[in-house]
Amino acid sequence: MSNDPGTLCSRIAGHFLPNPPGRLAVAVSGGSDSLGLLVVLNDWQLAGGPALHAVTVDHRLRPEAAQEAAKVAADCKRLGVPHDILTWTGWDGRGNLPDQARRARYGLMAGWARGQGIASIAIAHTADDQAETFLMRLARGAGVDGLSAMSERFESDGVTLCRPALSVFRHELRAVLEDRGISWVDDPSNEDLRYERVKARAALQEMAPLGITAASLVTVARQMSDVRKTLYLYALEAAQRLVRVHSGDLVFDRSGFDGLPRETARRLLQTSLKWISGAEYAPRGRALDDLLEAIAEGRDMTLQGCLVTLRKNDLRITREWKAVASERCKVTDVWDGRWRLEGPDIAGAELRALGKDGLVHCPAHRETGLPAASLVAGPSVWRGDELLAAPLAGMENGWCAVLVRDEEAYFTSFLSH
């Protein structure tokens, strides 16, 4: 890899071409990766690239964190890049700290970016991170999906998180900083062998004599990504052939599904469950194996807030009532992330799941062709204990239900992996 700053800037800027954003945020922790990315993106800004705005999240987990954030602020000031510091105080000492900190960081930055009118945030995941992640997932026995390269971009609360440095190695970014005389912060946790990523980093050094390097693992991860895309194309073809959307449910031709290769069936179920539930991640591993086993045996099963039911000719996936029993919102809002109800303006009305109590007030529900399990988990309009409308159950009263994540979104979701 070339250490030429101009070449490095072109490689990183290439991530955003041919339609670069007018404004771009960059997440900067003060470590070499994020600080190096900031400097390179600033070079691009000075050459006519997007206007930059840096952001640092202080997790309040180490005494030094505030001082490190202040150093980033000073570095940004010298570069002429506006900078904001966000703080997280949500750690209660329980659960998976790295995962909770990551989610909090992305959530805070997404909210901040929306407030700034910025649609994209650059984060400094490098080729080294790619290789370390591959090795950690390999140790867990991951399959094609787990061993595939990180996504170059993903959505978080309506903001796009970009990884423009996935093809760049850490030493390249450090070389830029050293050339400019800019120091960076070394987080002491990066040397703590209690952390899985630190162990993976050390293992890579030990395996280098065998030719197993960060560069070689990055190559394998990219190849696995190509395989993953191909498998999802097979799943999309199966969905287009076997699945129909019925009032928010997904109905599969059962005989066709039973004849699918297991890997295609897995991806078809994963994507379908995620589409209905709106979950951040699709189910994997043992849970999905249990579902495939239940389907093979003809047993109904719940998973990820969805109910999978088997009939002679059909397999149906619907929302599980328990998953939405407490969901309430204004009639003008989207309910369960899926449904928008349109109707008259009624003071004091709200959206809820219909439930069994509501279904008894819908005598025409059998004419809809939807099973009771689907109807009770569907949206309805209430005012106190009074049911005003349940469009999916045949009680319109001037209301209609519009599926926000529609059929087109379902099929498109197979291409977003």
Protein architecture, described:
A six-stranded mixed β-sheet has the order 3-2-1-4-6-5, with helices on both faces. The mean pLDDT is 93. The protein is globular. The protein has 16 helices and 17 strands. It has three domains: 5-212, HUPs (Rossmann fold, 3-Layer(aba) Sandwich), CATH 3.40.50.620; 243-321 and 408-415, Uridine Diphospho-n-acetylenolpyruvylglucosamine Reductase, domain 3, CATH 3.30.465; 324-404, no CATH class. It is of the alpha+beta class.
Q: Strand arrangement, largest sheet? A: 3-2-1-4-6-5
Count of separate structural domains: 3
Instruction: State the helical fraction.
Output: 40-55%
- Would you identify the regions where 5 or more consecutive residues have pLDDT less than 50? none
Specify the structural class.
Answer: alpha+beta
Describe what is shown at a glance.
The chain is of the alpha+beta class and 417 residues long. Helix content is 44%, strand content 18%.
